[in-house]
Amino acid sequence: MLLTGETLFIGALLDALIGPNLFVPGEPFLLAAGYQLQQGVWSGLIAVFVGAILGDHISYFIGRYLGGGAQRKLITWQPKTRRPIARCRRLMHQKGNYVLMFARLLGPIAWVVPFMAGSNKISWRRFAAFDLVGVLLGIGQFVMWGYLLAIGVDQFPLLTQAQAVLIEHQYLLLILICCIVFVYFGRKLRWRFLFAKSTLFVCLLMLLANYSHFFWFADDFQKQSRDESYKQVVVDANQLLFKAYPGKSGVFDAQAINVVYIGETPRSLMKTLGWIENQTFSRNDIEFKDYLRLLRAKTPPVSDLFWHGSPQEMAFQLPGDLMHRSHIRWWQVGIDGSTEKPMWAGALSYDNGLQFTPYSGIFTVLHSIDPNVDIERDRLAAQIARLLPHHLTLLQPLSKPRRQDDEHDYSTDGRILMIQEQSLLAIQSHRS
Fold first, then answer.
1. What pLDDT is stored for residue 312 in this prediction?
2. Residue 167 shares a structural domain with residue 236
């Protein structure tokens, strides 16, 4: 049910009126006006604008005619206004016009600016002119957000991406806030060895973030409802995104998808070739003791890569050691139109040592990927030709040639290894 114009007017008025504005938040009314505006209702916008202007002007005249006495009574009644009033007085003296224009963007100062403008005997014309700009800015920001919320954030790719980045990096942001608070109190209390203590504090928080990410939260993906209808959609390999990312938000350096398999599942293919199936943090419930067991077996879990926001469905490695191994991750990406069989995309690469790197909203230690992914692609093609002659392999230029740069963690000639059983060729020929 939409709020009436009268309700929005009263809400905006009380939000601007000195005294009641200490208790009445105006944001819900302004957001509601933006929501109504998207529905084609202009009266809400007019109501909050008139209410805000009227509230500011009443506060101005209260300050102008009651002055210092009203200030003292206000501080006695609500001690929390002492600091905003003192800060506002100082800013009003130094940069009065700017304060009047941007007061509604300055947090608690906005409560007392019109009142203080009257107390300081600023002329009404000057106040009215700059307050008009301030109301337009202050109301405009919340009306805009209400409008966008009514449309839906998913209609704005940039906002959707920003939202994904913030959600994915929330624990890193929390660590940053904790560190700022830690250093602040350390300086206030004059702790000795503050730098060493702060460094230790950051390291402990990062260890906690790593542990919680991999052993508590990564497997939550299994419990989430997901739209997997794309798996039943006919796709053309030429239109696939041949990139995967070490995070859902896609702001990380891309890793190459360089293999496409057409068939029910690549699992039997990989096992026939002697590849070992790995556990992954998103698809398996891995505890720390399980992680140690897998390390001893030289088959550590594979960290997740994300293709269109989804982690790999399965992963495999060739026998190797803890520092060096060939591995591949697989995603089902749709249905091949010519054979009506599932199409799978694979990210094949080689682990070559360890590195400290940003990953899925945290900083952690992961395997360093050899950037020349074409070597592993060609090696897999040769292995299939040698061991599985009934499978057809082709190198097709479906992607762009790339060199390792700030956005891509690999180099490639752009050719994709296409794999399918030769028996499927008869199906293709018959349908063509």
1. 95
2. no
Question: Alpha helices, DSSP H only, in 78-169?
Answer: 82-102, 113-119, 124-151, 157-168
CB 320 within 8 A of CB 349: no
Q: What is the predicted pLDDT for the residue at 1?
A: 46
Q: 323-352 pLDDT, tens per residue?
A: 999 999 999 999 998 889 999 999 999 999
pLDDT digits (tens, 9 = 90+) for 389-399: 889 999 999 99
CB 277 within 8 A of CB 312: no
Strands 362-369 and 314-317: what pairing? unpaired
- Residue 131 in domain: yes
Q: Is 224 exposed, middle or buried (0-12, 13-18, 19+ CB in 10 A)?
A: exposed
In which domain, by residue range, is 339 found?
A: 229-431
The sign one gets for the Cα dihedral 83, 87, 92, 96 is negative
Residues 36 and 103 in one domain: yes
Asked if residue 234 and residue 363 are part of one domain, the reply reads: yes
> Angle, to 10 degrees, between the axis of helix 27-38 and the axis of helix 124-151?
60
Which pLDDT tens digit goes with each residue over 4-30?
A: 778 888 888 888 888 787 777 778 888
Ramachandran angles phi, psi of 245, nearest 5°: -130, 145
224 lies in some domain? no
Residue 376: predicted pLDDT: 97
**Which phi and psi (to 5°) does residue 418 adopt?**
-95, 130
